[in-house]
Specification:
two-stranded antiparallel ribbon, 497 residues, two-stranded antiparallel sheet, 65% helix
């Protein structure tokens, strides 16, 4: 993919701000979703602040050569729940979040040291294009369900109480059960999402100059405007089904807490709460919950960097080097968790944004990180971002996740799929990933992407168990013996006939 702005390029000030806002919008939904899922008082704005800090650390370690944004990692959701559940109180739970992020970051640091001395050639042998290509595709495809699910729902919800039959003391009784359901119906939300997607596509394909480089901003604005119109009419009597946007979130502006991030470290070090707790058991629980997942995310780290490398046509695992990207990711996770509680990871949404916009400028990522930090203190802006309905972000994510999948498939364009060895490897990865194969061991979950990658590596090793002589015979060039000109002419004539 031809980049309009390369890694070292620096767009003009106005353009830079727009490009950075686009990156921020691309990573926003997933970044603030993690603390929303965990709850327990975790702050969305603090997670945004932590993502900005983590990204700055990453850029420093990678010498500003890798255009990647770090955001809250979904892979550690189970680990974070374990950190809260293993504590005697919420405050110790926050300490568990920090401790877990340190454990995960140290795994990256240790692997980085090993890579520094062992080099990266082993990665090309263990994870060649036939393994990494379909794995990157799975990263996009595994998120397809999230994109479509968001595409078909609004953000404004209402509480509905239903009578549900349950068995109580051996007898079936009806008990009330409440749930949150969207006001707007699926088709209305889908319309807003498709408008968002359509405007994004039109701007990217037919737009000129700036319009072509900020398709996500224009798409989100178009979808948000349509959703706002529907929501405005929803306040008329009997028209509640048109309500897509939850403008009630702006009511939080009246509370002081909305105007500053509630940093994790403010709650983590109240040592009075540790009295009487079994510290050894607590630390052990957190370590077991975080360390194995860190190894899983390491595999995704390599896949993401292979992906962005193919997009910008620069091998980032060699320059600045895998050891530096790992250190940036690991230390960045620790720094980000100190403020937001969430370990960070490289974001596919950021990679997709680079691919679609053609802007690989690291300056854009740097300004995005600063923008995330500053905006976390601007309550109206954070709340506005929080009101962007799911269907609108879903429309954008259809394109983002799709580009990730396609970029992975492009990696295997030059792979000979006529060779059964390659065909088996690609097939195993795609089916395991699309099928959603995942494994859980207590609090540790190996994601479908990681399972697909591990199976792909094993399959690749299995189909290539043979002696060097046989491999050399397969890869040796075909040598045609020299023949006389007259003979060549005759053979050519025979072939023509």
């Amino acid at each position: 993919m031809k980049m309009i702005y390369g890694v070292k390029d620096r767009p003009k000030a106005g353009q830079l701000l727009l490009f950075s806002l686009q990156q921020l919008l691309a990573i926003l939904a997933a970044t603030i979703a993690v603390p929303t899922i965990i709850q327990n008082g975790m702050s969305q704005s603090a997670a945004l602040f932590g993502a900005g800090i983590g990204t700055l650390v990453y850029l420093l370690f990678t010498k500003f050569k890798s255009p990647v944004f770090l955001g809250s990692s979904f892979a550690f959701l189970g680990s974070m729940f374990a950190a809260f559940g293993g504590a005697a109180s919420a405050s110790m739970g926050y300490f568990g979040l920090l401790l877990g992020a340190i454990f995960a970051g140290l795994v990256y640091v240790i692997i980085a040291v090993i890579v520094k001395f062992a080099g990266v050639k082993w990665i090309d042998k263990v994870m060649p294009a036939v393994v990494i290509g379909p794995t990157v595709a799975i990263i996009g495809l595994s998120l397809a369900g999230n994109a479509i699910g968001d595409l078909m729902k609004g953000s404004a919800t209402k509480t509905v109480t239903q009578m549900v039959a349950k068995i109580v003391e051996g007898a079936a009784v009806l008990v009330p059960e409440t749930s949150q359901v969207p006001y707007a119906n699926t088709y209305l939300a889908l319309l807003c999402g498709l408008v968002t997607l359509g405007v994004t596509i039109v701007c990217s394909v037919y737009g000129k100059k700036m319009m072509k480089m900020i398709p996500f901003i224009l798409g989100i604005l178009a979808g948000y405007a349509l959703a706002a119109i529907f929501t405005g009419f929803s306040y008329l009597p009997g028209a509640e089904a048109l309500r897509i946007i939850d403008f009630g979130k702006f009511a939080a502006l009246t509370t002081p807490e909305a105007w500053y991030p509630d940093f994790t470290f403010l709650h983590a070090f109240r040592f009075g709460d540790f009295k009487g707790a079994n510290i050894g058991a607590f630390v052990g629980t957190v370590a077991v919950a975080y360390i194995p997942v860190a190894f899983v995310v390491f595999a995704e780290h390599i896949a993401d960097h292979k992906n962005i490398s193919s997009i910008i046509e620069t091998e980032l695992l060699k320059d600045p080097g895998l050891s530096r990207t790992l250190l940036g990711d690991g230390v960045g996770s620790m720094a980000g968790a100190l403020f937001g509680g969430c370990p960070n990871t490289t974001y596919g949404e950021s990679v997709g944004c680079v691919a679609i916009s053609g802007n690989a400028s690291v300056a854009t990522i740097f300004v995005t990180a600063i923008m995330a930090i500053v905006s976390s203190f601007i309550a109206p802006f954070v709340l506005f971002l929080a009101t962007i309905p799911s269907c609108v972000m879903g429309g954008v994510c259809v394109a983002l996740y799709g580009f990730i999948a396609v970029s992975g498939l492009k990696m295997i364009q030059k792979v000979d799929l006529g060779d059964n060895r390659n065909l088996f490897v690609v097939s195993v990865i795609l089916i395991a990933g699309v099928g959603g194969m995942s494994l859980s061991f207590g609090k540790v979950t190996i994601t479908s992407v990681a399972c697909a990658l591990i199976l792909g590596i094993l399959a690749n090793l299995l189909v290539n168990i043979k002696n060097k002589k046989s491999d050399a015979a397969l890869t040796a060039p075909v040598v045609t013996p020299e023949i006389a000109p007259e003979q060549a002419k005759e053979e050519s004539s025979d072939e023509t006939v």
